[in-house]
Amino acid sequence: MRPVRLFAFLLGPLLVYGSQTPLNAYSTTLVDLLSADADYTQLLRLLQRTRLIPTLNKLNGSTLFAPTNDAVRRFSPWNEYLSLSDDALTDNINEQVRQTLLYHLLNYTLPSFPPKSDVETYRTLHFPRVKLEPPSKDPPPAPPWIPLPGGSLNNESQRLRAASRDGHAYVGVDAYGQSGISTAKDPVNGTNCMLIGIKDVIETPSSLAAIIRDTPSLSYLSKILPESQMDDLEKQPGLTVFLPEDDGWDELHPIIRLYLESPFAHADLKWILGMHMADGKLGYSTRFGDSTKLRTIEGNKLRINVTSDSILVSGAEVRQKDIYASNGVLHTVSNLLLPSGSLQLNAEKYLLALNCSTFVGLLRSVNLTSLVTDINAEYTILAPRDDVLEIAGGGNFPDEGTDELKRSLRYHFIPGKWRTDRLKDGALLETELIEVGLGGARQVLDVGLSSKLAMKSGGKGKKEIYFGGAGVIGEPIEIENTLIYLVSRPLTPPSDVLTTALPSLDLSTYLAAVFSTSLAETVKNLPKTTFLIPTNKAWERLGLVTSYLLMPTSKKDLESVVLHHTLDSVEYFSDLRNGTDRSFRTFEGTDVSVTRPSDDQGDIEVVFSGSGGWDGLQAKLDMRNRINTLTETGVLHQIDTLMIPRSVQVTLGKLVRAAGGGTMASLVTRAGFDWVLNGTAPPEDSEYAKYGQGVGWTLLVPRDEAWRDVNLTKLWDDADAVRNLVTQHLIPTFPPAKDDDKHHGGKKPRDNLNALVAADENAMPLNMYGQTHVTARSSFSSYGQISFMDKGDHFVVGITGARGTRGDEDWAKVMTWGRSTTSTGTHGQYSTKGGVIKIDRVLQPYTPRWWVRFGPPIAATLAVLFVILALGFTARWLYKRKESEPTYEPVGRDEEEDG
């Protein structure tokens, strides 16, 4: 003890702190008291190592709550610190150990101990401060280390409470005298000092953030506060905080609580916390008086009323007071200290509470939060929940922050409040998505309603609601001006027409047609369009016409056909079905007319007619497929027939090429019938000109493989044979009589009506349902007519009256056909077009053998002669028989004669 006392004696005159006088060299200091008791050797080592011996000796009046050796050993930070060598120390200042020791030290001597009142509060020499630098091995600034005012308690030192209960004294108790550390020894007095032994180390108060985490009644606040705000509560100095306990949050609407628990409530939580915090002079309860007011960080005032048994803060009861923290003081209260209605709930908070945080986060990434935060805006929101997006593997949303995402999200907002009673099946609702491809108009979203089979109470079925094909989950949620539907998947805005049509296998021919031309980019970017897309069957129905259009040499005509199916306006199904008959301009340049006839059941149909083609070529809106298939630039409808514009002239010559009938085309030209292929009228001096105007021509074209059995060289040199063969395959199509055409205002006999209707629907050049037709050869041959037979799945054609020997092989099978769009003339308002019928064999002109030609008349003549001879011989025999019979004269005849 002597060296230490000598060191203190020599330095004593140099140490001056405030108004204190130098230590008396013969006084009994705290160091003397500690050295005199073997139970404080560990504590004395700590004071020496942290260089606090000079501080203790300097103080002229002090009280030390001294942990015993057992207490030091049980306190692991100190025990570990003492086990390190001087060289192993990384902190020459020993900040943490030193501050904890100073928390056990008062710079004044207590007049008595244990406390006489229930709870006494002392000011220690611990001035907590936020650590700004890491530990250092550099020497301290200047000895001795006297704690200087400042730190994180606004120049105040940390407080320590003591209390007596059940006959024992405790230090480090709470504001109500509970908990704390019991004394281990009776107080020992020295010269103007007191030493009090205690059983454990008094730990310095933690930060406000740590206290919130460790306080069970503040578990909800600890759960919802983000780390950034916890960091503020860790470092921000000099705070007086009134925090609501867990049951105080129950006054909030459950949706608001769910919102606060989301990761997007940081701003609101910061505001809420700021409404419960004051800075400046620390607000210990001992400083409260009746009607005390504290201004919070957010600017509002907290009114404090103190009664004999309670403290009220803006009407909320203080439940736990004066919880000391390293950077302030904490009081817990029974309720939130918020003005009524201040925590306003908007659509964003509802969405977050409904587990749509990903949806909200995406809105924030593209600066669309105004759609959900503007309380005056009226929207119907279609929102997918987080679990829906997770099941979908992240959903169908584009990447965050992209223009594609912004476009997709806008498609989930419908202006106005569309309650379930306002929704109708097939309705189109305008969305918040403004489309450049629609000329700045809003993109629409289709609504679907279906009745659920399961019946609810009352016998009424529940309607299932769909938006853009996405089902609605649960009931809609209404809040102020907003209505929220939770949907089963994200909604995808319409794409360009080609991308939209691509998944449909029934539109593959149309897509192939577009991509085979140079129209792909044009079609995708045409603004404000309605696409009337023919199905694959629609293309098949025109047979050789389609084959011609898809030929590499027909691209110009194909482009005209494609553009003829593209209307220069957006016409949804309701516009077509409910509007009057009218015409629409196409991007091809001509019009498409729309009519609304009724079918046999009285249902209204939508029928389109192109500007060209032939009479009766009409397309119906295909109701079996989805109507109003939306696109980025308008809408797509499927039709059942291909329409031909008048700018496309499909001649027989083009159809012959499409049928692969090059040989037949050469023979037609060789025979002088090239006008048939060109679609012009026959020469005026031709015998076929006498047929008159309005006559069309249908050509039977054998496929090129069918000519293998024909000696073409011999045939080519025989002009008459070529003419006979061509005319055998050339059929004039006469215009119908005025009262003989059902499709043009007249009536057709019922036995032939179905065949005519079927022929028109299948784009046949002529009726092949069991019909017989004259040919160009009929005028000079008895065997010029041809007959068709319906075999169910195909047709066959043969020469009428021809006597064959090979059964079915004497007939040619019809492979396909096509109608031309050109005519040699008109008959009234009706023009006959004709066309091409492709067959699998050549119809050789029939000339019967001589016995076939002359046998029947010779036989008939011989039969007549035989009959005449037979009659003559019979008459002569009868006559001779009569002459040979005997003759008897009557008695008395002679006498009579004589008389």
Structure in a nutshell:
Residues 137-147 have a biased composition (Pro residues). The chain is of the alpha+beta class. Strands 10-9-15-14-13-12-11 form a seven-stranded mixed beta sheet, with no helix packed on it.
Largest sheet: 7 strands, mixed
- Would you tell me which CATH topology of the largest domain applies? FAS1 domain
Kindly report the name of the CATH homologous superfamily of the largest domain. Answer: FAS1 domain
- For the secondary structure, the number of strands is 37
- What global shape is seen? rod-shaped
Number of domains: 6
Spatial sequence of strands, sheet with the most strands:
10-9-15-14-13-12-11
CATH architecture of the largest domain: Roll
How many angstroms separate the termini? 222 Å
Please, what is the average pLDDT?
84
Rg for CA atoms: 55 Å
Structural class: alpha+beta
- Strand-residue proportion: 15-25%
Show unreliable segments.
1-24, 453-459, 739-751, 826-830, 893-899
**Fraction of helical residues:** 25-40%
CATH top level of the largest domain is: Mainly Beta
Specify the number of helices.
Answer: 32
